[in-house]
Specification:
Shape: globular
Number of helices: 8
Number of strands: 7
Helix content: 40-55%
Mean pLDDT: 91
Radius of gyration: 18 Å
Length: 246
Amino acid sequence: MKLFHFFRALLVVPFSLLVTLIISILTLFYAVVLRRGAASVQGLAAWWAKSICTASGVAVTVTGTEKLDPNKPYIFAANHQSQFDIFALQGFLGIDFRWLAKKELFQVPIWGPAMRSAGYIPVDRSRGRQALISINEAAEKIAAGTSVIIFPEGTRTRDGKMQDFKAGAMVLAIKSGVDIVPLAIRGSYEILPKGKLLIKPGNISIQVGEPIATGKYTSKDKHTLAKILHEDVAKLLGTIDSQAKK
C-alpha cells in the first residue's frame, strides 16, 4: 500500500499542473470569448480543487457554515498548515469567495490572466505607498460585497503549530468594515508539510467559527483584533481535536 501511495503522489504533481493549465484556459475562454463574469467561473475553480484532492486521496469535511449569512460578505481568516489548505478551501468550503494573491502571480502567463478573470484580488506586499493603495483597493472590493480568505500567519507553519497572527492582516478587515470569520484547518500539515513535494493521503477538517464584527475597531486596535482572532481559531482547533478523539 505504501508503494501505491508513493506512485500516486508522483503522478499527482504532473496531474495538478495539467489540470491547472486546463482550468486556466477554460477560465480565459469563459471570460474573453463567452464574456462571462467572475462569479460564473467559480465552479471551475471548485472542480479544479476537488479533482486534485480526489487524485491525492484526500477527504475534506466542513462544519459550521450555518453560522454565516449567505447575503453578507466576509473576510475568512484561517490558520495556514499547508499548501493543500488552498485546495481544501477552494473545493469544499461551499462559499463564494475570492483569493487575495501577491501581485507578482498575476504576471504568470495564462495563470495570471485567469486569476484576474476569476476576480482574484492582487495585493502589493511591499512597504510604502503602493502597499497602502493595494490594501485600500482590496478593502473597497470587500465592502462592495466580495468575500475573501486570508492567512493571518503570513506563511505556512513549519512544525504544524499555529503561529502568531500578523496585525497588518487585520487592517484589511477594519478598513472594509465587514465581519471577519475564524476558520480552523486541521490535517493538511500531515498531508503536505512545508518544504515537501509529495502528497500523502489523509483527512482534512475545516471548522467555521462565529463571525467577529469589526465596526467598533480602528487601525489602532489591529493588535487586539489579531489576538482575539488567534484565540478563536485556537479554540476551533481544540474542538476539532476533541471530536477526533471520540
